[in-house]
Amino acid sequence: MTKILDITNGDSAVELMKQAGVAGEFLPWRDFLLEGPVRYGNTLEQLSSIRANYIVQQGGVMRWQCEVILLNVTTS
């Protein structure tokens, strides 16, 4: 059986695709990637950390918020 992973541009796209009956598992990508560093060869965890650092430096968001969004870290 073939597994399908659908990587989407944000959470709202996931809901639309599910409603349309698109098969597979969904991974909403929550980073705009148009500005700042995006380096080839990094693991997902490394890239997420690099992106979180960049986003925090731009202001308006705290490091823990980026970790929750980009790294799926749960807070308690």
Q: How are helices and strands ordered from N to C?
A: EHEHH
Shape: elongated
The largest sheet is:
2 strands, parallel
Q: Strand order, biggest sheet?
A: 1-2
- Work out the count of structural domains: 2
Q: Which ranges are low-confidence, i.e. pLDDT below 50, for 5 or more consecutive residues?
A: none
Give the helices and strands, then pairings.
Layout: E1 5-9, H1 11-19, E2 25-29, H2 44-58, H3 63-70
Structure description:
By secondary structure, the chain is α+β, with helices and mostly antiparallel strands. It folds into two domains: 1-30, no CATH class; 31-76, no CATH class. It has helices spanning 11-19, 44-58, 63-70, and strands at residues 5-9, 25-29. The longest helix has 15 residues, at 44-58. The mean pLDDT is 83.
From the structure above, extract its key features.
two-stranded parallel ribbon; 76 residues; 2 strands; 2 domains; alpha+beta; elongated
